[in-house]
Write a structure and sequence with these properties.
With about 725 residues, the chain is of the alpha+beta class. Helix content is about 60%, strand content about 10%. Strands 1-7-2-3-6-4-5 form a 7-stranded mixed sheet.
Length: about 725
């Protein structure tokens, strides 16, 4: 045992020394450092996501309403939910009316305010200051505590209504306590499953981080592969080679993992706002998951070291001591896995709706991870053809470049990996951000045409006196209409009527004659027809709203920008409206419309990792090619051979990879749109991505040739 420990210690020190003496060691050191930091960052982001979802559920449960059931149940509080929006972000409203002095309060609330007063969340208070939030729902009485918010960025308000709110209104829930059914309040109403953000995180950022780790592990691999072969020839086992390789990569990998813990530590002390989403990460959730974070960081370190060991292998058949590195051939299982990914994508359409997106995303990750291997297989065959063509025509650059491409397809894999994944991420970001749906797109178009001049008011119950009070509080020149849905049942079809006084109808350019209203109207009327269909105007002497939920109110303001005033008039009624929003704005403020912000966050992070991977891979290839090509200047007698070899070995295969990736990306994007039945492909964005990768392919060839030419000027024969 003592001998084994001493041997392992010696081999580990050899690995550390080799990491400092290998050609291109600084490049590999920083590459492994960045790769370990990237992988650990994504892993720790996963831990923070899971911890955040757990914390949200716990806090939502603490404030959830407990309804009083049964004849003997004694309700102590009337409770009703509503909705609003501030700055395009949804706001959750909770209207309460205590029925006893000891009425229960939810977490985050120490006592109920007086009638006509309101408690606001800190984020709602901050973002709504410019929209009159201090007076919109009543008099401001304080803020909600952190224990009553599922996240510090939640926008929620508790509004205490006057005692004249009717007890007989069935839309008010009688409550006995708080502490249950938290999923029905605030942000928890439309919270997705934790798998949704995790899938997006790993598809857009996790895969590029792993690609960066693979690229960094293979930087300067030629020398290490020769060392592994030498260790095998000297009788070393796989364990001995593993120890040396780990020793070579341990220092940068450990330091990179520790650096990734720094942002996690900051997020566990201070609640952090995630741009561009606006979401505030609660530091209590992150802090409570430190044990899991430490264990996960250790696992991410082991993953990076495992990639380092796994990408440096030697032949096990005993016929040769030459390393069987990825540069020599493309293992058959890699293109096979790419085929598995494509198969998962294709079969996802035949699965149940809930499983489709999961299987599609999993197949996408596998397909993009191994598509570069398929490209390498194609370019290897292309290399054979180019070399044969160069031999027939006596073209040394084409001959050498083709043979290198055939002999070292792994080089093309590492260089193409960044471009392949980069184009895929950009395309997916564009497709996901286009998934607004028909209704959301219509809402955006409506806002562009008439702004917020048509406002829908959904009251729970409004008497004639309350309606008159509401009208008197509206901005001057406003028109008040009633919207009614009539459903007589089969065989008759339902229809919609919009009622208003003759004065209000004439203000909308709708003629009023006795009991009939003739067609006409302005831009606001045209937009209402787009949303409500072919409704009928009905003259009315007085506007009222029934309590059965079939009627609501419509306010048309003379100019834009008066939505806040309409909301204040509606929410300060004794029995406030449940919802007040501009026509179609409910679709603009939906969670679907905020999804692009999360896609941008994960996608930009992934693109950053991809750019680093591409830079490391290209720099490593420049180091290798400048030493290998330098003697050719002596053999050929001309410097033009550098441009020729670099073009056929680097530029042409990368252009092939770009074309293949563009075709696959177009098919994948169209298939995804067909699967989810929404969104669109921006061929301009895809063309820009392919053009950028083509430009990079040309630049890599030119820079490789330049590096070789400069090295040739100072090259001297040396025994190696």
């Amino acid at each position: 045992m003592a001998n084994r420990i001493r041997t392992a210690s010696t081999l580990f020190r050899i690995g550390i020394a080799a990491g400092r003496a290998t050609p291109g060691d600084r490049l590999r050191w920083w590459g492994l450092f960045g790769a370990a930091a990237a992988v650990a960052f994504v892993v720790l982001a996963t831990v923070a996501t899971v911890a955040t979802f757990d914390g949200r559920e716990a806090r939502a449960e603490a404030r959830g309403p407990v309804v009083a059931f049964g004849e003997n149940a004694e309700p102590r509080l009337l409770y009703r939910q509503g909705g609003d929006s501030v700055g395009g972000w949804p706001v959750s409203l909770v209207f309460v009316r205590p029925l006893s002095a000891d009425a229960p309060v939810p977490a985050g609330v120490t006592r109920w305010p007086e009638p006509g007063e309101v408690l606001l969340s800190p984020e709602l208070l901050r973002t709504g200051a410019g929209e009159g939030i201090l007076t919109r729902y009543g008099r401001f009485a304080g803020t909600i505590g952190a224990d009553g918010l599922v996240t510090p960025s939640e926008r929620i308000a508790y509004v205490r209504v006057g005692d004249e709110a009717p007890k007989s209104d069935r839309r008010w829930l009688p409550l006995a306590a708080f502490g249950r059914n938290g999923g029905a309040t605030g942000e928890m109403v439309d919270q997705p499953a934790v798998t949704s953000p995790l899938l997006a995180l790993w598809a857009l950022a996790g895969l590029p981080a792993l690609a960066l780790a693979v690229v960094a592990a293979r930087v300067g691999s030629r020398t290490r592969d020769r060392r592994s072969g030498l260790l095998q020839a000297l009788g070393g086992t796989g364990r001995h080679r593993m120890i040396v390789n780990i020793g070579e990569a341990a220092v940068p990998a450990v330091l990179g993992t520790l650096v990734a813990l720094a942002p996690y530590a900051v997020a566990s002390v201070h609640s952090t706002r995630l741009a561009p989403t606006g979401y505030i990460l609660d530091h209590r959730d992150v802090q409570g998951a430190w044990p899991m974070a430490a264990a996960s960081a250790a696992v991410s370190l082991l993953v990076v070291l495992a990639l380092v060991v796994g990408t440096h292998r030697v032949r096990r058949d005993g016929t040769s001591t030459r390393p069987a590195s990825f540069g020599d051939r493309v293992p058959a299982w890699r293109p096979a896995l790419c085929g598995v990914g494509v198969a998962l994508v294709l079969t996802s359409q035949y699965l149940p709706r809930k499983a489709q997106l999961l299987v599609f995303t999993s197949g996408t990750v596998v397909m993009w991870a191994f598509l570069s291997s398929v490209v390498a297989l194609l370019t290897r065959r292309l290399g054979s053809w180019v070399a044969a063509s160069g031999r027939r025509k006596g073209h040394p650059g084409r001959l050498v470049g083709g043979r290198w491409t055939h002999a070292h397809p792994g080089v093309i894999v590492r260089l193409a990996l960044a471009m392949v994944i980069g184009i895929g991420i950009v395309a997916q970001m564009q497709v996901w951000t286009s998934r607004l749906g028909v209704q959301s797109q219509a809402a955006v178009a409506t806002h562009q045409r008439i702004k917020d001049t048509v406002v829908e008011v959904t009251p729970s119950r409004m008497t004639a006196a309350q309606t008159d009070r509401f009208r008197s509080s509206l901005p001057a020149g406003s028109v008040l209409l009633s919207h009614a849905f009539h459903d007589p049942g089969p065989p008759k079809e339902p229809w919609i009527t919009v009622g208003g006084t003759c004065r209000d109808l004439r203000a909308l350019r709708v003629s009023c004659h006795g009991a009939k209203a003739t067609a006409g109207g302005n831009a606001q009327v045209a937009e209402m027809r787009r949303w409500y269909g072919d409704f009928v105007f009905v003259p009315a002497s007085r506007i009222g709203v029934k309590a059965d939920g079939t009627e609501s109110l419509i306010v048309v303001t003379p100019v834009a920008g008066q939505l806040a005033a309409v909301k204040q008039a509606a929410f300060t009624l004794p029995n406030p409206a449940v919802q007040v929003e501009a026509l179609g704005s409910g679709w603009q403020g939906s969670s679907r419309s905020r999804l692009p912000n999360w896609i941008q966050l994960f996608g930009i992070t992934g693109i950053l990792f991809v750019l680093v991977a591409g830079a490391v891979s290209a720099a490593a290839e420049f180091v290798r090619i400048r030493h290998a090509l330098a003697p050719l200047a002596v053999l050929t007698g001309r410097r033009g051979v550098f441009r020729s070899v670099a073009s056929w070995h680097l530029t042409v295969p990368l252009l092939v990879a770009t074309v293949v990736t563009g075709v696959v990306t177009a098919w994948h994007s169209v298939f995804f749109i067909a699967l989810v039945k929404e969104g669109s492909v921006s061929w301009t964005v895809l063309a820009a991505g392919v053009s950028a990768c083509a430009a990079v392919s040309l630049a890599v060839g030119l820079l490789g040739a330049r590096a070789s030419a400069r090295e040739a000027e100072r090259w001297k024969p040396a025994a190696d």
